[in-house]
Write a structure and sequence with these properties.
Glycoprotein, Type 4 Pilin, mainly alpha, 3 strands
């Protein structure tokens, strides 16, 4: 009976340690995914501007235009396949900041898990 209790205790401790590490890895992978998605949105926005002949992007540009084709009132084509492409891994919409802090013309920004400025780990801002 004592052996069973010891084994169960050891398994519980291992599960707690693994769960803590897995949660940390998932948070950092969402941040990496946000960076990748933001870069994809920036590329789509640059193509939209080039193809529509626009010169400047306004602060707070509506990114939904990138997922609408001409039949929906968007640009000459769809630049991103689905609406979920303009949502960060935490379900919040990406934002366009003009002028950009990192890029001259604009930045694509996600505030992270907490959906507010600043923060660390999963809550850190992602700017591309």
């Amino acid at each position: 009976m004592v052996e069973v209790i010891v084994v169960v205790t050891v398994l519980a401790l291992l599960a707690a340690v693994l769960a803590t590490n897995v949660i940390g890895v998932m948070g950092s992978s969402k941040t990496a995914l946000a960076k990748t998605q933001a870069a994809k949105i920036a590329q789509a926005l640059n193509m939209y501007v080039a193809e529509t002949g626009g010169s400047d992007i306004e602060d707070g540009f509506n990114l939904e235009i990138l997922v609408m084709g001409p039949e929906d009132g968007g640009g000459p084509r769809k630049y991103l396949p689905k609406v979920s492409d303009i949502l960060d891994p935490w379900g919040n919409p990406y934002m366009v900041l003009v002028p950009g802090d990192i890029n001259a013309d604009f930045d694509i920004l996600s505030y992270g898990k907490d959906a507010g400025p600043g923060g660390e780990a999963e809550n850190q801002d992602v700017t591309q």
